[in-house]
Amino acid sequence: MEFEVLEFKKEAQQSLDEVRYALSEGWVSERLESSSQYAYLNLTTREGQEYCVRLSGRGFQVVGRSHDEVSGEEGGTWETVYSLLNCISPSYSSSFSARLADRLNRLQPSAERPEQND
C-alpha cells in the first residue's frame, strides 16, 4: 500500500514538473493525506489563482480554491494536467505556444535560422 501511495505522489510530481513553466507555483500537498487512490496538488496559476487539485484514477479534479483546501469537487474531471490548465488558466495556452516555438527553434539547424540583427 505504501508503494501505491508513493506512485500517486510521484505521478503528481511528474505532472507538475511538466507544466511548471506555466505556473507561478505548484507542489504536491504534504498537509493533505495521499492514498493508494489519490494525491493532492497545490497550484497557483500565472493569473494568481490558487487551486487544490486531486489526482486520481479518474484524472485531475479541482477540489478547492485555496492551497490545501478540500471544499468539494468543482466542475469536471480532466484526463491530463494540460487540459486542466487550459480550462483554469487563460495564459496557459500562450505559455504552451511560446514554449513549443522555443523548442522548435532550438531544433532548427543554425544555418537555417534567420539572421538576427541586434
Helix content: 25-40%
- Name of the CATH architecture: 2-Layer Sandwich
Distance between the termini: 58 Å
Strand order of the largest sheet: 1-2-3-4-5
Low-confidence stretches: none
Describe this structure as you would to a colleague.
The structure is a single chain. The chain is of the alpha+beta class. The protein has a single domain, classed as Hypothetical protein (hspc210) (copper amine oxidase-like fold). 36% of the residues lie in helices and 27% in strands. It is built from three helices and five strands. Strands 1-2-3-4-5 form a five-stranded antiparallel sheet, with helices on one face. Belongs to the GSKIP family. This is GSK3-beta interaction protein. One of its GO terms (biological process) is regulation of canonical Wnt signaling pathway.
Topology of helices and strands:
Blueprint: H1 2-19, E1 23-28, E2 38-45, E3 50-56, E4 59-64, E5 74-78, H2 81-88, H3 92-107
Antiparallel strand pairs: 1-2, 2-3, 3-4, 4-5
